[in-house]
Amino acid sequence: MRFFVRFLPVLMIGLLCASSGFAETGSLPPSRGVITYSGVTGMFLNPTSGTPAKGSLTTQACIGDYSWGNEKIEYTAGIITYGVTDDIELGWTHNRDRHPKASLNHDWAGPHARFRLLRETRTSPEVSVGGISLRGQLMHQRDDWFLALSKRLSKPTCRRGLRLHLGMKGSSMNGESFRSYFAAKKQPWHRGMSKSHVNVVYGGLEYSLSDAISLITEVSTKGDDHYPKTPWAAGFQYKKPGQNFGCTLSLVQTGYLNTPKVYFGIGINFDG
Q1: Is the model's pLDDT at 23 over the cut of 60?
Q2: How many angstroms separate the CA atoms of 85 and 87, rounded?
C-alpha cells in the first residue's frame, strides 16, 4: 500500500497534464502504446512500432515490481518523448528501484530513439527500429536495440479490431554484476543472468474492446536462457482517440519474478 502512496504524486501530475492539454498536436497511430518495462512506449514489456506525431510531447510514468528471490524490490519509471517528425521520436528514460529492507535506491537513465521505416498499408505492416542507452547503477546499465512490426488483422470497417505486434530486441549489459550482487548477498540466482548479450523475439495481440479500451497479451523468448522464466504479460490499455490521456493495467512476468505482479502506467498525449 505504501508503494502506491509514493506513486500518487506522479499519477496526479499525469492527470493534471492530461487535463490541461499539455501536448495535443497531431495524431498517433493505433500501434502507439503506453510506457513499458523496456523504457519506451509499447505493450507492457516490449516496444511497439508506433511513433508520436510531429511536434507532440509525451510524458509517462509507471509502477511495477522487480522482486527477485526473497528480496522485495519496488520499481518506478518515467519517460518523456518528442516527435521530431511523424516518423522520428527522441526521448529520455529514467528508472528507479527501491530496496525497502536495505533502505537503498538504484537509479539508471538515458536517451532513447525510434525511427519508423515503413508506414502501415492494407497489405504491409508498420516497421520501426529503435534503441535505448541507460547508465547509472552498474547492474542495470544496458544498451538495447529493437525492431518492431505492427499490422491490423481485421478489416478496417470492423469496430472491434485485432492487431498483431511482433519484434526482436537485443541487449548488452553487465552480466557479471548480476552474479556478484547475488553472490554477495548469498542468494540463489539464475546462471543465465550473467550473460552480457541477450537477444529475444517477442509477439503480442491487441484486441479493441471499444474505441478506447484494448485487451493486450504478449510473450517473449527467454533470451538463450537469460531469463529464469518465460516473460509474458496480459492486461488492458486505455487510449481514446481525441483525448490526451492513456493508461495501462496488467499482470506481468518480467522473466525474473517468482510470481506475476501487477503493473500500472499512465501517459498523456494520445490524440488519435
Answers
A1: no
A2: 5
